[in-house]
Every structure is written in structure tokens, then in C-alpha cells.
Sequence to fold (194 residues):
Amino acid sequence: MAKLRSIGVFCGSRMGERKSYADAAAAVGRAIARAECRLVYGGGDVGLMGIAASSAAAEGGPVYGIIPGFLIAREGHLDDVEIKIVETMSERKSQLIAESDAYIILPGGTGTLEEVFDVISRQQLELQDKPIVFLNTDGFWSPFIDLIAHTVREGFTPQSLADHIELIDRGDLAIARICAQLNEKDAINAERAD
Fold:
């Protein structure tokens, strides 16, 4: 089986309007640490991303943050985790994607959406094949999935891409699903090799 080493977490640099979002971010951070994976994130100490990262670190898990230098004054950074300072937002996103074996997407705003569209576009272009799981806390991502389904119906997105996107309700189940996807991929690759 392919070893799951690092999980990228894309989520808001704000808290959102519901306490359930913060609870979900904390649960994801703990679940990633308990799965003995490294949490890769945007490097700040604010919002849901700060909660996910600090929860993973508090659980004893490795955390790797990537942040543009100009954002440190606005978003800060956690002191007890590995941080890489880069120049631009594009560089941060590219390194977040490269450092992750899979992605868990939590609620977030336009920055999170940009990251999501980048990773699913890479899947569609076959530039990568990494599990993507949306943590659908209180139905947050349901309208997004409806939008993707609309683009499929209208002929702009292949059904195979929509099939690759999954909604999960709990952090531990998200990690279990990622592992199952990796096992399925390994089985397919083994069959092709025979």
C-alpha cells in the first residue's frame, strides 16, 4: 500500500459563523496526528487553519506550514511547528499541493475555493491523482457539489472528476476514506502490472 505521509488541509483563515466549523477543524487536526500523518497547511495561526494545525501539534503530530512572508503580520504563525516562508501566494499553493499526498477540505472562503479548484483541475488534467475529501460540516460544501454537478450536466466537466470528489462528515472518516482510495488505486496498479 502507498504510505500516506502528509495530508494537506485547506480551510478558512477566519472562524466562520458556526462553532461546528472550529470543532471540525480541531477534530481533523487530531485525527491527522493520530493517523501518524503530517498536517500540511497555509502556515497561519488564525481561523480554522490555526485550529487544525495547533490541534495536530497538541496531539503530538508533525505540522508543516507554508506562508508568504508578507502574511505573517496578518496571520501570524505557530511557534512549535515547522514553517517555510515563501514569497508569493502562488508559491505557497504550489508547495502545499506538492507536499500533500491527499487533501481534506474544510469550510473556507475564496482562498480555499482557489485551492480547491486548483487541485481538482490538476486531477482533471491528470497532472496528479491524489484523494480529495470535503469535510461537509453542517452541509457547508453541498452547494459546491451541486455546482460541480451542474457543470457536468452542462458538458463542461467530466463525470469522472465529479466521481472523485467525496463529502464526509467526520475527520476520522475522511482519513479512513483517503486510505481506502489509496488502497483501491494500489489494487488497480497491481492489476495493470500483471
About this structure: The mean pLDDT is 90.
